[in-house]
Design a protein that fits this description.
This protein is mainly alpha-helical. It is built from four helices and two strands. The protein has one domain. It has a two-stranded antiparallel ribbon with strand order 1-2.
Length: 131
Amino acid sequence: MSLINTSAFDYINVLGKAADAASKRNELIADNLANADTPNYKRKDINFEATLRKAMGASIYETTDYKIDRIRNRDLNAKVYIDQVGYSYRADGNNVDPETEAVYLAANQARYNGLTLSIDEEFKNLKAVMK
């Protein structure tokens, strides 16, 4: 059995999936901003946090380590959704608010930066253990 298949990489795998979702969210926000003036365009988003909560389960009697250990990568594939399909505050049917999207973009970029720093720290920890 190789180290790649052991639980040493469980947290790194979850962090990697979270970083992938944050990267995808940046793309979606950029698309939303690019289509802010497109009639009937509906904003798109991704919710990795809900996907992770579902994959981890709700049991209060299990440790986070146990929950992370049993997660399969395919359970962490968050799906893109169209936000508030039937809702639009504009006459042209578009529901993108550029100012709100800018806030989402800033928050998501901070999240992405934190995730990449966490991944880097996990690899540093593994490297220290292997010495």
